[in-house]
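Quick one - inputs below.
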Amino acid sequence: MNDSTITQMDDVTLLAALRRGDESAFATLVERHHASLVRLAMMYVPDQAAAEDVAQETWLGLLKGLDRFEGRSSLKTWLFTVLTNRAKTRGLRESRSTPFSALAKSELDTDEPSVASERFLPPDHSQWPDEWGTYVSAWDEIPEEKFLTGETMDVIRQAIAALPPAQREVITRRDIEGWPAQEVCNILAITETNQRVLLHRARSKVRQALEQYLNEGL
Amino acid sequence: MAEEITCKELVELVTDYLEEALPTEQRARFEAHLSRCEGCQSYFAQMRRTILLLGRLTEDTVPPAAKAELLTLFRNWKESGESDPPAPAE
Ligand SMILES: [Zn+2]
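Output:
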């Protein structure tokens, strides 16, 4: 098989090739899912090295369990479930992990405006109470390439790293990994409303970081 | 129609709006405000752009060293022919 055909194959086809011992099928699956696995593992373990370890264990678990993997769930779901369990166990062993519910609760208990209130006119303003005092800039004048530079992406990565843990976990699963809301609620055992609050707070902070960075060039 | 929402209120509702979680009336107020307020239009566009950019982080590639380690793992596995024992009959 040549490389360009193989990168277009779906996971099911690649798994079949993997059972026959095809290394390029494995390499393609790794390219497709490994970064996500490491990113999710980071939610539970203290550092990058530990996250890489957990992701590696997950791949080994897949290889050893290939004969039993019957495709009842998608490969992605399977990998993420195994990874989450392993990462949690490891996180507990290294006693860094607080249950998600406790993290979420402490984050939800505080009030956090999406935009600093100084940016709005005061509530008792005679004409425009609570309307924008300082407008946010329109980004349409920014050239498209600017958004996709490594530097802009780093601003986003840093903003995510700085988020409180529950917000970081929700935004990672929803907006980076593209999971459906319902699946995130299930795996984290939170209500839809709380999931949306955490997601909104996380998005608002990433937006703010981007605004700060992009406005320097305006 | 009930009282209009303010800019300060709108910025708190963006995710609920995008997730289609606003009650019909509230949704109408959101849209009415957005259609007349340039500041909120910019803000809303920024939020959508932010979400779009977040989605691009999935395109991160695997560092060569990590990939090499995984391929070694694969080769060792293939040589040993190791697999988990079959699942017990249910
Ligand atoms: Zn407004």
